[in-house]
Amino acid sequence: MERxxxxxxxxxSTVCQTIPWVEDTLxxxxxxxxxxxxxxxxAGDKIQ
Length: 48
Fold this sequence. Notes:
- By secondary structure, the chain is mainly alpha-helical.
- The protein has one domain.
- The protein has 3 helices and no strands.
- It starts with a helix and ends in a 5-residue tail after the last helix.
- The relative contact order is 0.10.
- The model has no long low-confidence stretch (mean pLDDT about 80).
């Protein structure tokens, strides 16, 4: 988060509020699918 707030000159609190909003918005979108935690754990470092 430090890079985001530094690169865009915004407060850390703004970043902390915006990230969950973006995640929730994407999760509600029917055209966007997030993999589950189990799949992410199995993939490990293979995800690009």
